[in-house]
Amino acid sequence: MNGFIKTVAGICLGGSLAGCYCYRDLVDPCWPERYNHQARTATIETLNAQAYNGHILDQTIWNWYFVRGADGKPTATLHPAGIDHLKYLVRRQPCPDPKVFLQTSNDIAFDPADPDASMKARSELDAKRQEAVHQYLTYATAGRALDFQVLVIDPGEPGLAAIPIGGMGQPTNLRGSVQQMYQNFKGAMPGAQGGFQSGAPGGNAGGGGGGGSITINSGSGFGGGSSY
To answer: In sequence order, what are the residues at sequence separation of 6 or more whose Cβ sits closer than 8 angstroms to the Cβ of residue 105?
Structure first.
C-alpha cells in the first residue's frame, strides 16, 4: 500500500515538474466574445469615420454659395442658396453644430506670372467670406448663446462624375454597374443576346401536356418584346 501511494505521489510530482495545464491554459475561455468585440469595434470605427466626414461636408459652405460680381470675379457676398444652407445649419435639432467649415477660395484663378498675388488674393477673399458667414450666423441665432467657428478647409467635392451626352452621341459598349447607371436612370438590366428560355419537364413549346416555354428577347433594358 505504501508503495502504491509513493508511486502515485511520484507521478503527480513528476507531472507538476514537467508542467500541468488547466483547461483555461490550453484554450481561449473568452472565445468568441473577445473577437466579436474587436470586429464590432473595427466596424463601428469605420462607420463613425464615414459619418464624421459626411457631417463635415454637410457643414461646409462651398464656393458656389457666393455670388460673382458684375465683372465675373468672385466676391464675399452670400448667394441666396448659401443663406438657405446657413438657415438649415442653424435650425438643426436638438442644437446646431457651432463648427462651420468654409471651402477655400478655389474660384480665384492662379496666375503663374505672379503666384504670390494669387495666394494673397485667395487669402484675403477667404477672410472676407469667413466674416460674411460669421456675421450671418450671428444674426440668424440672435438671442441664443451660440459662438460659431468658421474654419477654412479644402475638401474634395463629393459627387458622381457624369458622362456628357449631346444629341444622339451616347456612349456604347459600357460595362459595369456605374456605367449602367449612366445609361439608364432606372438601373435596367442589360439586354440578353440569345434570349432566356425556360421549359417545364414533360412538355415543349407547342405541347399541351402541362409543359410550356418562355422566350424573352430584349434589345435594350426591358424595352424589347416578349413571347409566352
So the answer is: 63, 74, 121, 122, 125, 126, 129
With a CB cutoff of 8 Å and minimum separation 6, the contacts of 24 are: none
DSSP 3-state assignment of 66? Answer: strand
Q: For position 12, what pLDDT does the model report?
A: 53
Q: Enter the pTM of the model.
A: 0.59
Q: How many angstroms from the chain centroid is the CA of residue 109?
A: 30
Yes or no: say if 203 and 219 are a contact pair by the CB < 8 Å rule: no
User: How far apart (Å, rounded) are the C-alpha atoms in residues 98 and 69?
Assistant: 30
Looking at the chain, the number of H-run helices and the number of E-run strands are 6, 8
pLDDT in tens, 164-182: 555 455 555 555 555 555 5
Number of Cβ atoms within 10 Å of the Cβ of 152: 16
Chain centroid, CA 71 distance in Å:
38
Whole-angstrom CA distances from 14 to 10, 18, 19, 172 are 6, 6, 8, 80
Pick the closest to residue 109 from 74, 147, 133, 134 (CA basis). Answer: 74
Residue 180, CA atoms < 13 Å, CB-side half-sphere: 11
SS3 47: helix
Contact 140, 84 (CB under 8 A): no
Alpha-carbon distances of 178 from 58, 129, 158, 169, 173, rounded to whole Å: 24, 37, 16, 19, 13
Helix (H) or strand (E) holding 227, with range, is strand 226-227
The phi, psi pair for 64, rounded to 5°, reads -75, 0
The percentage of residues in the chain with a pLDDT greater than 90, rounded to a whole number, is: 51
